[in-house]
Here is the input.
Amino acid sequence: MLDWLDAFLITGLFEVVMIAGLGLLLHLQLGLARIANFGVVGFWGVGMYTFGVLYVKVDWPFGDPWQFLACAAAATLVAGLAGALVGWLISDLDIDGVLVVTLGFATAVQIVATTEADWTGGAFGLGGLGFPYDIGTVKENEFVWLMITGLLVAAILFYVWRVHRSPYGRLLIATGGNEPLARSLGKPTFRTKLWLFVVTSAAMGLLGAMEAVMVRYLDVGHIGISITLAAIVGLVLGGTARVWGAVVGTVLTVGLFDIVIRTYLPLPREWYSQALPVMREVLFGLALILVLLFRPLGLLGDMRRDQLMRKLHGR
Amino acid sequence: MDFLARALLIGLTDHAPLVLAAIGFALLYRLTGLINVAYAETITLGAYFGMWANTSFGLNFYTVLIPAAVMAGLVSVATYLFVFRPARRRYVGVLELIIISFGLSIFLRHGLQFVFGYPERFFNVPPPETIFVAGGGVTSFRLVALLSVAALSLALYWIIQRTRLGLQIRALASDEDLARVSGIRPLAVTVLIWFIAGVAGGLAGAFYGVGASVSPLLGWRQFLAIFLVVLVGGAWGIGGVIAVGVATGIALAAMALQFDQALYGQLVLIVAFIAILKWRGRRLTEQAKV
Here is the structure.
């Protein structure tokens, strides 16, 4: 079974699905509420390590899939609590403060994952993770996990789509556009931002748990700034204001690079260890600069409602 | 030697470049209103330029400080002219400007590896002499770093607060239109600010690089501490940045001596500074929370 499917393609597609999921959640924070979360990898990492430590270090009275479900639920909860803490911290701060707090949070998560080696394995890593099922070969297990994660990200996409069409979404846009005005109109902006952070961070944590199962071995190198970068680049390229922005952008960045270029282009073998990863980051950085300079709203452009307003008012 | 004296000595000498880098970052932040994440790479490039001048031309460490500082200054000006100025002219928002600087930071951090190579690099300098001060040993490089940082910090403070040029810089920062009608040339003054900031960052990078190794992450590893020092200290002007920077260096050294893992010091620093920002934020903004 699955002979037609390349193992690299599965991991490449998983990466696209994962980053698209993070990009969609970041879209709610950055695109709608205008909160620049530069610590995406921190919430993702909290979920990943909470799941990993609980799964490996705790002696559960039951086996998989219940063990997986219990650990993933705990990872989601802990990431949601981290989101509540960070959301409360940034609620009074301006853009500079938000940047430093979110960056600081991601750094703190990385420090704790490094120093608490008894639990996390530190720089050596944490092994012993696996799929909560076994249907045959590793490739088949990975393929099923890709499908499950794909369904989860599709659910996130549906949630984002629903938020755009709900009063809650309009409240987020109003808070992001002019918070004092929204507050003076009696809107609960503090509660809105806090709840947004709790929900999106919890989902980021769940995605981290899904990643932990797929990679099966955690080390601190996993939770570096490149995850945050990939999510931001995908979102900005696709369009921060649009539901599909993160998905389109991630396919064009991570998908194009990690699947088409890495897997299918006939590149010299020695490029794979150092030149290609470096080139990836160079191109991602350049894409961010060029898109924001020449097409700040990304490929998909403005929100539908803004396009409609322009048409109606002739502006 | 007792604990406090050791912490003071190590903090002042080891973390002196932090103060210099923070002054450069604060100049950009306070005078142009921009949070330039790519400032981390100005620091990194200063270390790389210094190492390149040192290993290619055999110049000694004190001589390479000049090309390192000037080249980092020029890179800083180039980023302004080719990235941030066009962005401002296109009315790119504050949030987008930060993301642009983040992209530029990633671009420079990885792009420099195509120029200088992937492996870690080292300065080719003879082992520094150890000088005994207040009962403790300190290498000559670190002592030079401390003295240079002290001299440069005072010079920058004096330029900004006491000279005509400093007056122009501050006028431009507070109201650009008013500064323009007063006969100040905004482009020339802004370019100068970026150059001075680049020089400060480049020198800090060279001091960091000679003390350990030169790698693409050199500046990024210091960035959060620099940013925190500037956000917390910046409320009291350049003097505040210097004071908080020195205090941070001493606190980091003290915690490195106290804890078995140096990373705990960074963790405490992050938590403490974020708590200060939160506390201040609650006092400064309007209180009507619904």
User: Anything to note?
Assistant: Residues 71 and 118 of chain B are 21 Å apart (CA to CA).
